[in-house]
Amino acid sequence: MKDLEKQDQLYAEISLVVSEAKQRVYQNSNKILLQMYWQIGKLIIEDEQEGKAKAVYGKATLKNLSKLLTVEFGKGFDERNLNNIRSFYNAFPIWNAVRTELSWTHYRIISRLETISLRSRYIQHCIEGNWDTRTLQRNIKTQYIGRILEEDHPEIPAAKQLIKDPYIFEFLGITKDIPSSENNIETALINHIQHFMMELGKGFAFVARQQHIVTDTSDFFIDLVFYNYYLKCFVLIDLKTQKLSHEAIGQMDMYVRMYNDLKKGADDQPTLGMILCTEKDETLVKYSVLAENEKLFASKYRLYLPDELELKQLIEQDSVRFELNNPPE
Q1: Which pLDDT belongs to residue 319?
Q2: Peptide bond into 166 cis (omega under 30)
Q3: Cα–Cα–Cα angle for 66, 70, 76, nearest 5°?
Q4: Where would one find the signal peptide in this protein (predicted)?
Q5: For residue 314, what are the CA distances in angstroms to 157, 279, 319?
Q6: Distance of CA 226 to the CA centre of its chain
Q7: In a domain, 122, yes or no
Q8: Per-residue pLDDT for 304 more than 60?
Q9: Claim to verify: residue 150 and residue 93 sit in the same structural domain
C-alpha cells in the first residue's frame, strides 16, 4: 500500500514538473511569435510611410511580400495575415503595451477595436477572466464593456463595477417568440452555468439554486445564490419574466436583510441583491429603495442577442438613468 502511495506521489510530482515546463514553453513561444509579428508590422508601416502613394504602394508591397515570404517560410504569411500584422502594429505601436499572456488570435480580434482605451479594457478583462478567443468575440459583439457602469464611471462604489445592464443570455438558445417561465430560464442558466458566470463577470462562484431560508415563522426560497470573491460577499439573484415591480424590490430587500442575519459569515461583506427583469420603470427605480441602497440592483436581461441599434438604446437608457440618479456635486 505504501509503495502504491509513493508511486502516486512520484507521478503527481513529475506531472507537475512537466505541466509547468510545457506552460513555460508556451509562454516563451507565444511571446516570441507576438514579438516577431510586431517587428514585421513595424517594418511594413515604416516602409509604407516612405512611399509617395501610400495606399497603392502599401497594397502592392503586401502582395509581393506575401509571395516571397510564403516561398521562403511557408504558411502564415499570406496577404490577409500580413494585413493583420500591419493592423496589430498600428493598434500597439509600443511593444511594452503588448501583454504576452494573450495569443496572436486574441490580438487579431482586439486590433480591430477603434480606440486605445477600448483595446486596453478588453485586454484587461481577457486576462482577468481567462477568456478564450470565442468568448472574446462574443463579448465584443454583445458590447460587454459598454454594459458595465464602471467603465465610464470609475468613481462609483465597488459593487457597481461588476453590474451590467442589460445582461445577454443568448447562449441559452431560448427563442424570444416563445414565452418561457422563470423556472425554465433558471434551469437553462444552471445548465449553462459556465456561460452564465462569464456573463455575470469576474469573481463569481455558484452557491445554490432555490436556497431554502427558514425563519421562526416562514420558509423562503431564493432563486440563485453566488459568492463573489473580489467583493467578498454573497450575491442573491431573483429572476423575473415581467417588468420590475414594487413587490419584487420589496422581496429582494427582505432577502438581503435575511441573508445578512442568517447566512453571512463574520468575514463576509454585506450581501448584494440583484433583480433580473425584462423591463424597468425608471420612475419606480428613482423613488424606490433601489435609488439609495448600494446593495440592491435591478438589471434588464434579454434571452437573445439584440441588433446593434437595440443594444445601443438599451445601454444608453441605463446610462441616462445613472446620470439622473447620480448628479455631479
Answers
A1: 56
A2: yes
A3: 85
A4: none
A5: 22, 10, 9
A6: 17
A7: no
A8: yes
A9: no
> Is 317 found in the same domain as 200?
yes
Q: Specify whether the CB–CB gap between 159 and 139 falls below 8 A.
A: no
Structurally, the chain folds into a number of domains equal to 2
Name the residue type at position 303. Answer: L
273: cell is: 441583491
Q: Residues 213, 293: one domain? A: yes
| Sign of the torsion angle spanned by Cα atoms 205, 209, 212, 218 | positive
Q: Say if residue 84 is in the same domain as residue 197.
A: no
How does 136-145 read in b/e, with b if 16+ C-beta sit within 10 Å? bebbbebbbb
Per-residue cell: 316? 444608453
**Position of cell 419584487?**
248
DSSP letters spanning 19-69: HHHHHHHHHHHHHHHHHHHHHHHHHHHHHHHTSSSHHHHHHHHHHHHHHHH
* Amino acid letter, residue 205: A
What's 269's domain CATH number? Answer: 3.40.1350.10
Using DSSP, state whether 239 is helix, strand or coil.
Answer: strand
Output phi, psi for 109, to 5 deg.
-75, -50
Distance of CA 81 to the CA centre of its chain: 27
CA 283 to chain centre: 29
Whole-model pTM: value is 0.80
Domain of 54 in residue numbering reads as 2-100
SS3 assignment, position 230: coil
The one-letter amino acid code at 152 reads D
What residue has cell string 463579448?
139
**Each residue of 93-129: pLDDT tens digit?**
999 999 999 999 999 999 999 999 999 999 999 998 8
Nearest to 166 by CA among 312, 51, 329: 312
Indicate the residue among 64, 83, 100 that finishes a domain: 100
CB–CB of 301/166 below 8 Å? yes
Q: Where among 100, 123, 157 does a domain terminate?
A: 100
